[in-house]
Design brief:
Helices cover 49% and strands 22% of the residues. It is an alpha/beta fold. Helix 1 packs across helix 2 and helix 3 packs across helix 5. The longest helix has 29 residues.
Length: 148
């Protein structure tokens, strides 16, 4: 069935449920996994219509924090895969919109399925907050398993 599963994570407790389910599915199918963390680029704070304030240290601190958060989140995927005895790769993608980064990672890695967790917000809540899962579902050309 599936031979290479992309597991999207942001390091949250909810995402950990997706990691667990993705690894379990991969183990059952004899598939390999690629864990992906999406790092959003630094966005400068705008204080007026014409002025932006951005220091080199602010950008460096942000990138350092994002790298550490990604390493921690992807470490969970690596440990789960190792514990299940399946092959695992990890990658960090930078994207303004996480759903775009997830699809880009799946395409670049040659994955044939995506596993990700969702809060399950619907209706107006999803419209206001924006559902990354809904966007992945809407734009993915490969199957997506959503874990709640």
């Amino acid at each position: 069935m599936f031979r290479h599963i992309l597991i999207a994570t942001d390091g949250s407790a909810l995402a950990a449920k997706g990691v667990k389910a993705g690894v379990k599915l991969a183990h059952a199918l004899g598939a390999r996994v690629t864990g992906v963390f999406i790092a959003q680029p630094y966005l400068a704070a705008v204080y007026s219509d014409t002025a932006m304030y951005m220091t080199a240290s602010a950008v460096a601190d942000y990138e350092k924090g994002a790298k550490a958060q990604g390493a921690k989140a992807l470490g969970v995927v690596e440990r789960a895969a190792k514990g299940a005895g399946i092959r695992c790769a990890t990658r960090t993608e930078e994207a303004l919109q996480p759903w775009q980064g997830i699809l880009k990672a799946a395409r670049k890695s040659g994955c044939d399925a995506i596993v990700m967790a969702s809060h399950g917000h619907g209706g107006i809540t999803a419209t206001i907050l924006g559902s990354q899962t809904s966007r992945v579902l809407a734009h993915s050309k490969i199957p997506v398993l959503v874990i709640r």
